[in-house]
Amino acid sequence: MKTMCCNTRRVLVALSACVVQAIAGLSMTAFAAPPHACEMANTDCAMVPELLKHREGYGRSATGGLHGKVVYVSSAVDAGPGSLRDALAHARGPTWIRFASDLTIPLASMLRVPSNVTIDGRGHNVRLLDYGFGIYGSSNVIVSHITIDGRLRTFAQAIDIANGSRDVWIDHLDLSRFAARLVNVKNGSTDVTISWVKFHDDDKVMLVNNITSDNLFANYARDSIARVTIHHSYFVDTMQRNPRAQFGMVHLYDNLIENWDFYGMSFSLEAKALVEGNIFSNSAHRACTEPAYFPTVEGVDANYCRYIPQAPARSALVNGESDRAHYERTKSLYGYTHGYQAFLSVRDNLYLGDAQAVLQDAQPDKVPKPPYCYSYEAPSAELAERIRHHAGNTRDDDAAGRCGQ
């Protein structure tokens, strides 16, 4: 009996040691790289220059996790070992995050993205549900090849760039169905590029700056530094704000805006916008694809199907129209020294189907010329088809010529 107890004790000790070792192994291998993968995101690792060569626009300086460790997400749970949330929480210094397999990840809250991080979904089908990424006070961030579907369940954003963030590049994302917005660039954030992103099935798609004060210009000094480039992106089956820009500089080129139900773009409050080579396509006679209603933060259930017959004539709102009434109501109270209209340089845009031009030059000499080389293409039906095919979380993403090529 004594011998049996000793043997049993030895077995239990051995089993305990195995369990401890297995747990330790899990924690060590949760982010382990697959065989033959790069351990460091250096330029001699092929996947790194292959992505970075596509940078252009105001966010062109973003290097993300360049020269940092490569971390692999292996779990589809919201948090814990191997999860995307855990990889972001443990990003100390430059970090290049990749995925070990196709993953669909239901999230319980926004994912906070620190500085010097790349989130790279290439090679796998990676989907986030209900929440997306909060880039708050961070710099040097890249997010590429991810699908983010809010399912109209949360009053959040797919990508929220705020609080002085800068040098941010979001590329080849598929964004849809968020009850607030798909993308924000606000609160003193700047130097952002949005490329080859598919925006769809959403109401208030995108804001460049977000005026929350009754005094429209209360944060003008902070927010007017914004510089945003949007190119080769696909806005389809959306309602409005593709985008809506207030203050700051926005360069929009070679985007496809198709079948908006309410209006296309909007510019106001001395935003500076260069709008060139974009393609606007709409039909006044088409079926409505909206859900029964879009939930809104104001608590009003919104539906825009009745506006479809008039939508093609509203490829954009008249310059300044989105804020004119508020401006006129509060101007005497706050003594505004700025105007409610934007400064616009508009050229070479293409209108297909029933779509009609609205935007016109407005003091274009006040719109700065882009301080960078960019892969501009003359708009055409062929370009529109290429954007339809390649924008979003696609695998064959080498569709656009790079600057200087």
Low-confidence stretches: 1-30
Number of strands: 26
Q: Rg, please?
A: 24 Å
Main sheet summary: 10 strands, parallel
Strand fraction band?
25-35%
Mean pLDDT: 92
**In what order do the strands lie side by side in the largest sheet?**
1-2-5-8-11-14-17-20-23-25
Number of helices: 6
Percentage of residues assigned to helices: 10-25%
Can you tell me about this structure?
By secondary structure, the chain is of the alpha/beta class. Helix content is 17%, strand content 29%. It is built from six helices and 26 strands. The protein has helices spanning 2-29, 47-52, 84-89, 220-223, 321-334, 381-390, and strands spanning 69-73, 95-99, 103-106, 111-112, 117-120, 126-129, 133-136, 139-144, 147-149, 157-162, 166-171, 174-176, 181-185, 190-195, 198-204, 206-208, 227-231, 234-240, 244-246, 249-253, 256-258, 266-268, 272-276, 279-282, 343-347, 350-353. The strands form three sheets. A ten-stranded parallel β-sheet has the order 1-2-5-8-11-14-17-20-23-25. A nine-stranded parallel β-sheet has the order 3-6-9-12-15-18-21-24-26, covered by helices on one side.
